[in-house]
TrEMBL record, chain A:
Classification via Gene3D superfamilies: MetI-like
Recorded family membership: Belongs to the binding-protein-dependent transport system permease family.
Organism: Pediococcus parvulus
Source organism, top-level taxon: Bacteria
Record-given protein name: ABC transporter permease subunit
Topology of the protein relative to the lipid bilayer: Multi-pass membrane protein
Transmembrane spans: 28-48, 95-118, 130-150, 156-174, 205-227, 263-286
């Protein structure tokens, strides 16, 4: 009996357990986590109850209503649309696009980085040359050009175009870690005993990279929300029919609106700030959890 | 030393070729041709056809590509539809504005980042360090455009300390008047962009210093009785600051990407604003030229960084 207790005591805690410990000891991280979940859930639930057509209907009599006027809690914009409802729908769209881009680009980046780092040699060399080249491209400009010349433009084409450029940092990070892992004894041992490369990569190396992947994906999610809203702000992001937080902030490009009608764009700016700050903080806490030297818990 | 630089320059040649091919392909997908802007109801269709044949628009793509590249090396990017002027003349004046703003921002970035990184590394694990790391986390997380819009609103509109747009005021005259007015217009966009660009430099400098602190040579210096101040200024700083110089080139690349946002928000007449303006007016010859110029500038930025790095750090030189 005592024997089994001892083995339990030296067992390495699982990744999830370590993360949970870290969050329990870091109040700010815990707060960010709960806050982000509540905010995102709230946005999705409220947005689901709204009718997009009704919300985006123009009502000229309510143009630039002040907050509180005519029952608009956050006022109304140029088209007399309810600021709060537009905000919720915009936030939902931005979160969904950011999420989709993160999933696609991270998946691609992880696979690219793992293959490049694991095999090394000429394959790695070639793949890194491609990486280097895409990395120096002026990505914002090329995305904007692609957005304007692509036929049948919609949210999905936008997600694909953005993903084409957002996998780079993930690939680089994963490559360096996979390179280090591929030189470890367990990989050689597994290879000697005849395990296929595919199995070594995805069943044995991948789990060892899981904490890095979780951190990187969280941080990319915050970053991608920032880039999507930025492109929408310039007018080259989501199509006009799908409002984004960036579209709402772009109303601030009108000198009259930015100065004297802040209720039109300020709430959207605050939501972006709050979202990116809290998601990044969660990412930082996850990073600390993944690194035994930095752990607070 | 020279071998490394030469090798690095040789690597750049295929990159420029692929970049130009990519830009050429993008340009071919853009609607319109060099005569679109000059078509009027009176234009004769057969005459237009003859002009197009003469300009080589019906040639095979590789002939067109070579033609385009040769023209580009002569500084000829075609004519802007919108301004009815050679593209280079349109870009020229804007490029100077972007250059000034970028230079100003780079200097500010280092002026802010280096002291912060030094202090955070020197006083590791104190409240000062934690404060600087918090600042770093904030600058990392906030999207540039949101920060710029908020800054413009607060300092340009609510407080009214700075002009809300443009690069120079109409009433400015004389050399000093012009220079001062230019500087005054650059302060707000420059400072805001610089604040957000400090993240990687602060982070890198801090971890370099923390690393150096535990080196044997630092322990030796301390054991010899070198005062703490001198250990930092002579032994640690030298090794930590040099790699920062190499970031200079990369920061050019980063700034160019941001220039689209900065110039649009502050109505600053530079290349980034020209780019967006040309996109909305479908002025494709200007767009092609700008993408090409930005790409080449980014290439030279990384080249510069790699060269500085090889001068500073002998280990990465190729024998």
């Amino acid at each position: 009996m005592t024997n089994s207790k001892e083995t339990q005591a030296v067992k390495t805690p699982s990744t999830m357990k370590v993360i949970w410990q870290e969050f329990r000891h870091d109040r700010v991280a815990m707060f960010s986590l709960v806050f982000t979940i509540v905010l995102i859930l709230g946005i999705f639930i409220y947005a689901a109850s709204l009718n997009l057509e009704k919300v985006t209907n123009v009502n000229i009599f309510a143009q630039y209503d002040k907050p509180g006027q005519d029952g608009f809690l956050l006022g109304a914009d140029e088209g007399g649309r309810d600021g709060l409802k537009m905000l919720v729908i915009g936030a939902r769209n931005s979160i969904m696009i950011g999420f989709a881009v993160t999933v696609i680009s991270s998946l691609f980046g992880i696979i690219y980085g793992m293959i490049s780092g694991f095999y090394g040699g000429w394959l790695d060399n070639g793949m890194m040359r491609i990486y280097d080249f895409i990395n120096i491209l002026p990505e914002i400009m090329i995305i904007i050009v692609l957005v304007t010349i692509v036929p049948k433009y919609n949210s999905w084409t936008f997600i694909i175009i953005m993903s084409c450029f957002m996998w780079l940092s993930t690939a680089r990070l994963i490559r360096s870690k996979a390179l280090a892992e591929s030189k470890r004894d367990y990989v050689s041992a597994s290879r000697t005993s005849g395990t296929s490369d595919f199995k070594i990569l995805f069943r044995e190396v991948l789990p060892n990279l899981s904490s890095i992947i979780i951190v990187d994906t969280t941080l990319s999610f915050a970053g991608n929300i920032g880039i999507e809203t930025g492109l929408s702000f310039l007018g080259f992001g989501l199509p006009d029919s799908t409002p984004s937080l960036g579209t709402l902030i772009s109303y601030a490009q009108d000198p009259d609106v930015i100065g004297s009608k802040p209720w039109v764009w300020l709430p959207a700016a605050v939501i972006i700030l709050v979202l990116t700050l809290s998601i990044s903080y969660i990412g930082q806490a996850l990073r600390r959890a993944g690194d035994a030297q930095q752990r607070r818990g | 030393m020279w071998k490394t630089i030469l090798r690095r320059v040789v690597i750049m040649i295929p990159q420029i070729v692929i970049l130009s091919l990519l830009v050429f392909i993008l340009a071919k997908f853009m609607p319109g041709d060099p005569f679109t802007g000059s078509i009027t109801p009176q234009t004769d269709a057969s005459q237009l056809h003859a002009l197009k044949v003469q300009a080589g628009l019906y040639d095979p793509w590789y002939t067109q590509y070579v033609h385009w590249v040769v023209n580009m090396f002569h500084g000829d990017f075609g004519t802007s539809y919108q301004f009815k002027e050679p593209v280079m003349a349109v870009i020229g004046g804007r490029a100077v504005n972007t250059l000034w703003l970028s230079l100003f921002t780079v200097i500010l970035t280092y002026l802010i980042a280096i002291p912060l990184g030094l202090l955070a590394g020197r006083y590791e694990d104190t409240n000062l360090d934690r404060g600087i790391m918090f600042f770093n986390y904030v600058t990392y997380a906030i999207p540039l455009f949101v920060f710029l819009v908020l800054g413009l609103w607060l300092f340009g509109y609510v407080l009214g300390w700075f002009p809300s747009g443009g690069s120079i005021s109409l009433s400015a005259n004389g050399f000093f008047g012009n220079a001062l007015s230019r500087l005054y217009h650059m302060i707000l966009p420059g400072v805001l962009t610089a604040l957000l660009s400090t993240t990687s430099t602060v982070q890198y400098l801090r971890s370099e210093i923390v690393d150096q602190k535990h080196q044997d040579m630092v322990a030796t210096a301390r054991a010899k009785g070198v005062p703490e101040r001198k250990v930092f200024s002579r032994h640690i700083l030298r090794n930590s600051l040099l790699p920062i110089a190499a970031f200079m080139g990369y920061s050019i690349t980063g700034l160019l990407g941001g220039s689209v946002f900065v110039e649009q928000i502050f109505v600053y007449p530079g290349m980034g604003q020209l780019f967006l303006n040309s996109i909305s007016n479908r002025d494709f010859s200007v767009i092609t030229a700008l993408v090409m110029i930005y790409g080449i500038l980014a290439l030279f930025g990384t080249l510069l960084s790699d060269i500085i790095m090889s001068i500073v750090d002998p280990r990465i030189r190729i024998k």
